[in-house]
Amino acid sequence: MLKITDLKIDPNSLGDVFLLAEISPSYDYKDGERTTNINGYKYSVALPKLRFEKISIKVPLEKKNTPLFDINSENPIPTGIKVGFKNIEVKSYFSNGNINVTASADDVFVIKEWKNEEYKWFLQGKPYKYWTPKLFVLELACF
Fold this sequence. Notes:
Structural class: mainly beta
Distance between the termini: 43 Å
Mean pLDDT: 83
Strand order of the largest sheet: 1-6-7-4-3-2-5-8
Low-confidence stretches: 128-143
Number of strands: 8
Helix content: 10-25%
Shape: globular
């Protein structure tokens, strides 16, 4: 018999824009109780295509061992920025009489909003006048 957990949801149905809302640790559970062992990070994102509904997408520690931003810093997490995910998998499950949705991914990254002039210079392989060496490395890592 087919179960709800056998079905996978097409990740493209979430849209192609993910706006970061929150980052929180994900913990292991043992015998139904949460342990103190962190097994990944959950990225809560708003989905403009779906009337800004939110979904949490988990990235396991074995795929990415640090969160995208320092969640213990005094500086706030930059909410509303565009992020992308590598190999998103979306599933449904049944709990407490409800069908719920869960999602996971192999990686998360910031999506750079290119200005026309920046993009032109990048494609030509020339450093843009406002880039510093550190920023240039960050730009390449996010591309």
